[in-house]
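Sequence only, no structure available. Ideas?
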Amino acid sequence: MAAVFIALGSNRGNRREQIEAGFAFLEQLSDSPIKRSSIYVSEPVGPAKRDFYNALARIESDMEPSDLLKYCKAFEEERGRDPNAPRWSARLIDLDLIGWDNLVVQSDNLIIPHPEYHKRLFVLLPLRDVAPGWKDPATGRSLAELIRNAPPLRIHPIDQPHKDTDTDKE
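Reply:
I predicted one. Tokens follow.
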């Protein structure tokens, strides 16, 4: 059984509902109860205009990584995500495989650990919630070190409203 870390993000529609639906979906896939991070609000990276809601779940799975990725992409499409939308565009739901035990994978359609996660506080802070002692299996770097070296980003837990980010209105 592998410990799998999956990041969730949404910046369209009812963002909290999308994240909660993602957690419920991952609960169904997991072989044991999932461990959930807090939900965070962060500024968008790239051209998207609306703040994202972000979270992370730790699940247990004996699936192959490529199979789990297929399930996650199918869920995104079922929830209304356009698989052909430009990179970094607005999205209803995004599920990214961040880590898989100590596995390192480099293939055409899957890279584990996720190639951008170490640059994204919206992944690192939720990861700290569920696995504070986690180390990058490819580099051996600690989560604390990764957080210290990540580019700055406006981010806060959802229960600490900032500007208009605490509303789910479009």
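Confidence is low (pLDDT under 50) at residues 162-170.
Hope that gets you unstuck.
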